[in-house]
Design brief:
The protein has about 325 residues and is an alpha+beta fold. Helix content is about 60%, strand content about 15%. Among the domains are: about 120 residues, TolA/TonB C-terminal domain; about 80 residues, no CATH class. A hairpin with a 5-residue loop joins strand 3 and strand 4.
C-alpha cells in the first residue's frame, strides 16, 4: 500500500526550522465535520461486496485553504476498502478553515463507511477519539518545545504517552510510537541529554525497519546525524546525514504529483545538506562544502532568498575578492 502519511509527521519531526514554515491547524473530527460542504458516498468495491466485507475506513486527511482534500495516511481499514475510501474523499469539499482571519490548511480525521459495520462502530469511534487526543497532545508538545517551554513539553509528551499506553497494541500505532520517540528525543536534545536523545532517535529508526526508504526513516537518521554533530562526532554525523538526504531525494522524485510533499522534502534536503556543508568546512574540505551548498541553492525556491542557509552558501561559493595594490 502506498504511504500517504509523510506530511504531518515530518512537519512535527523537523521541529521549529521546518514546522514554522508550514501553517496548518489540527481540527477535531467532529468540528471539521461542520465545515463539510460535499461528501459523495464511496463506490463499494465489487470484490469486497461479493465477499460481504463491511467496515469503516479511518483516514487522516489534509484540507487545503480552498477546501480540497488529500489523504495523509490510513489510520485503520480493511485493505479491500481502503483505496475506494481514499478515492472518494478526494472529491469531498470543505469550507475553508481560518487562523487569525487567514485561510490555512487543516488536518483532521474522517470515517468512510462501507455497508453496515455496526459491530465495529464502538471500536472505531474509540480510535478516532484516541487519535484526536493523542495528536492534540503532540501539537501542544511541539508548540511548547518551539517556545523552549521544556516543562510544558514534558507534560504534554507524558499525556501523549499515557494515551498511547492505554490504546490498542503497539503494532496498530507504529506511527504514533515513532512520533512520540522523535519528539521525546528532541526534548532530550534540548536538555543536552544526548545519550537519552540518541536512544529515542534510535528507537524511532528501529520502528521503520520494514520501511527503510520512508521519509520517517530519513527524519530519524537526520535527527541522529544532527545529534552526532552537536556531540562533536562529525564522521558519524556525516554518515547519517548522507543516508537521510539519499532517502529524501528518492521520496522527492516519487512525489512528483504532490507539490506540497516535494516542498517539505526540499527543505529537509536543504537542512541536511547545509549541515553536511558545515561538517566539510570544519574538516577543511572546501570542494565538498561547495558541493553541498550547491544542493542547498538548488532548492532555494522552497527556502526563500532570505534564508540564512542560502545567504551563507552564496557567500561560501563566492570567489574571494582581491585587492589591487
Amino acid at each position: 500500500m502506498a504511504r500517504y502519511w509523510f506530511f504531518v509527521f515530518l512537519v512535527v519531526a523537523f521541529g521549529s526550522s521546518v514546522a514554522a514554515q508550514t501553517t496548518h491547524v489540527r481540527v477535531p473530527s467532529d468540528a471539521a465535520a461542520t465545515h463539510l460542504k460535499s461528501s459523495p458516498a464511496p463506490e463499494y468495491p465489487p470484490l469486497a461486496q461479493a465477499a460481504r466485507i463491511q467496515g469503516n475506513v479511518i483516514l487522516q486527511i489534509s484540507i487545503d485553504p480552498s477546501g480540497s482534500v488529500s489523504t495523509l495516511r490510513v489510520v485503520r481499514g480493511h485493505p479491500m476498502l481502503v483505496q475506494a475510501a481514499i478515492a472518494v474523499v478526494r472529491n469531498w469539499k470543505y469550507a475553508p478553515f481560518e487562523l487569525n482571519g487567514q485561510p490555512v490548511s487543516a488536518v483532521t480525521l474522517v470515517v468512510v463507511r462501507f455497508g453496515n459495520p455496526a459491530n465495529h462502530d464502538v471500536e472505531d469511534k474509540a480510535e478516532v477519539v484516541f487519535q484526536d487526543k493523542f495528536w492534540a497532545a503532540m501539537d501542544r508538545a511541539q508548540t511548547a518545545l518551539n517556545a523552549s517551554n521544556l516543562s510544558e513539553t514534558e507534560q504534554a509528551l507524558q499525556n501523549a504517552h499515557t494515551l498511547l499506553s492505554s490504546a490498542a497494541p503497539a503494532p496498530q500505532h507504529v506511527s504514533e510510537h515513532w512520533q512520540w520517540a522523535m519528539s521525546m528525543g528532541a526534548l532530550d536534545r534540548k536538555q543536552k541529554r544526548f545519550g537519552d536523545a540518541e536512544q529515542q532517535y534510535t528507537d524511532a529508526l528501529s520502528l521503520q525497519k520494514d520501511h527503510k526508504d520512508s521519509p520517517e526513516a530519513a527524519a530519524s537518521l537526520s535527527a541522529i546525524g544532527v545529534l552526532y554533530f552537536e556531540s562533536n562526532k562529525p564522521e558519524l554525523a556525516r554518515d547519517r546525514l548522507q543516508k537521510a538526504v539519499s532517502i529524501y531525494q528518492k521520496n522527492y522524485k516519487a512525489a512528483v504529483t504532490m507539490p506540497s510533499a516535494q516542498d517539505v522534502y526540499s527543505r529537509a534536503i536543504a537542512e541536511d545538506s547545509w549541515m553536511l556543508a558545515k561538517i566539510a568546512v570544519s574538516a577543511h574540505q572546501p570542494e565538498e562544502a561547495g558541493r553541498q551548498c550547491h544542493v542547498v541553492l538548488n532548492v532555494r525556491k522552497s527556502l526563500g532568498d532570505n534564508d540564512p542557509k542560502v545567504t551563507e552558501c552564496e557567500r561560501l561559493l563566492s570567489p574571494p575578492t582581491t585587492t589591487v595594490p
